[in-house]
Design goal:
single chain; about 425 residues; alpha+beta; Beta Polymerase, domain 2; 8-stranded mixed beta sheet; two-stranded parallel sheet; about 10% strand
């Protein structure tokens, strides 16, 4: 056992976490490790979510077994990672559970150490593994040996008080890995907890350091913010702390007014609404919706001449703006092109609706339905509709005949409801 520090240990009868709520495959891994003489803990966000009465999205396991020992115990596993090796244990339908060896430091702190020739040097004890984590409520362990909770970092108390607090000194944490600041925001938004004062002051003081991080890491963390169902609260915190402007500097101008901030929040809640309804919006749709409030500031659709020439100029302006704002985080070309199509389509809706009919060629585009959804969301945020879209009913005309019809012909229109 670890000598220092002494953890708070809650026996099974003193906490609410039941094995009946743990993924059966995760239980299989925990039991096999335990039966072969290794420590086996459920760790991270899954323990936090179970204690909050939520269903975890995934389950992670930590153990004192080394990666090769894990590999030998589980034939259905694969070792991944360059510097710090961990295992993915696979099950049906491409499902996997991550199993890692207790370690001393964050994997991103280890990347900067050139004098460690082997990943073995980073292995640690359970207490070291707890203290290298980001926030206290994610540092609670569930021990399969006796079903107890092990808390080295004060996570159980912070869970009770509904506080998001850095483990250790937040200054050191954020300087060594600024990406932790995005995670603090995300967990506060997801749980509805308050960020502890010292942690928040440090976050505001170091938020500009996000620009020094790997663009790929920042991009992935930001995309998690977009997809995980608590975007409204997350964006409010990012606006208040200045984090949004550190990630996207050109946003500082359109969001200088409080009214524009309210408009932004109205639009961005659509992603949460889709997630809560069980629909999973595409990454490109989320990005386009996120950028939509800035479209009218940088590329006002009404500022271009009518017709095809105006549309071509508008699309070129949109492309330049999207490239400028997405390039710092190195979004892939495919994502930028998809966002260009979705945002570049918005002027077409404004020009043709509601009196005129949308061109049939435009309605055949593979991104049309998503572009239309964007248009509806923005219209509702502006307060001028639409409440919905009404398509003509009846038998469809064959495609060959439809091409011969004028785009003003019957059955080709798209209208707002009442």
């Amino acid at each position: 056992m670890d000598d220092q520090p002494n953890p708070l240990i809650l026996p099974r009868q003193e906490h609410s976490l039941s094995r009946s709520f743990i993924d059966p495959d995760a239980l299989k891994i925990l039991y096999r490790l335990h039966h072969h003489g290794f420590r086996a803990y459920l760790v991270g966000g899954c323990v936090r979510d179970l204690l909050l009465g939520k269903t975890p999205k995934d389950f992670d396991v930590a153990t004192d077994a080394h990666p090769q020992q894990i590999r030998e115990l589980f034939r259905n596993s694969r070792l991944i990672g360059r510097r710090f090796r961990l295992a993915h244990v696979f099950f049906k339908n491409n499902k996997f559970i991550e199993v890692s060896t207790f370690r001393r430091r964050s994997e991103f702190e280890e990347e900067g150490e050139k004098d460690h020739p082997h990943a073995d040097n980073t292995f640690g004890t359970p207490s070291e593994d707890a203290f290298r984590r980001d926030i206290t409520i994610n540092g609670i362990f569930y021990n399969i040996a006796d079903f107890s909770l092990i808390d080295y970092v004060g996570g159980l108390e912070d869970l009770r008080r509904k506080i998001v607090r850095c483990i250790g000194d937040p200054e050191e944490k954020f300087i060594s890995d600024p990406v932790r600041m995005i995670r603090v925001i995300r967990h506060a938004a997801r749980t509805g907890f308050t960020i502890e004062e010292k942690t928040y002051r440090s976050l505001i003081g170091h938020v500009e350091k996000l620009r020094l991080c790997s663009p790929a890491r920042v991009r992935e963390e930001f995309l998690r913010e977009l997809r995980e169902g608590s975007l409204e609260e997350s964006m409010k915190m990012m606006l208040a702390s200045g984090m949004l402007f550190s990630l996207f500097p050109s946003f500082s101008q359109p969001f200088a007014e409080a009214r524009q901030n309210e408009y932004f929040i109205k639009i961005i809640t659509a992603i949460d609404d889709l997630s809560s309804s069980g629909k999973v919006p595409s990454e490109e749709f989320c990005l386009a919706l996120f950028l939509l409030p800035g479209l009218g500031f940088y590329c006002p659709p009404d500022g271009f001449p009518p017709g095809r020439r105006g549309q071509a100029l508008f699309q070129q302006k949109v492309k330049e703006w999207v490239t400028e704002i997405m390039n710092p985080l190195q979004f892939p070309r495919q994502a930028k092109e998809a966002v260009n199509h979705l945002l570049g389509s918005q002027r077409i809706f404004r020009e043709f609706l509601p009196e005129q009919k949308l061109p049939w060629r435009f309605r055949r585009k593979p991104y049309f339905s998503q572009a239309l959804h964007l248009f509806e969301i923005e219209a509702r945020a502006r307060g001028d509709g639409p409440a919905g879209v009404s398509w003509p009913t009846g038998e469809r005309t064959p495609l060959r005949k439809r091409r011969k019809k004028s785009h003003r012909g019957p059955g080709s229109g798209l209208f707002f409801k009442g």
